Amino acid sequence: xxxxxxxxxPFNTKEAISEWITNPEFKTAYNNLEDEFRWFDALHxxxxxxxxxxxxxxxxxxxxxxxVARLEAGGGKSKHSPSLSTLRRxxxxxxxxxxxxxxxxxx
Length: 107
Fold this sequence. Notes:
Blueprint: H1 13-20, H2 24-32, H3 34-50, H4 54-61, H5 65-73, H6 84-93
Helix pairs in contact: 4-5, 4-6
């Protein structure tokens, strides 16, 4: 019996989103996630700027690589919000200071 061989299917996220965004329901849901996307991008960007891998950040946090990956990806299946303690440990690990601000919404 021949061994099955894994062959990934090419997927271009930007192209897919540009197609899906034409659906009004998708567009509304996607736009409602803007703050979350910005936050996860900020985590990833801080790690990249520090020149660290997820494994290195996990080691410095006293955590696991999959936990850091879930944190950067938005929580994984559990979709829970990370604690301030976790965010502080992440910030420390990548050489940053955690700052949380409330910004008034203009109406």
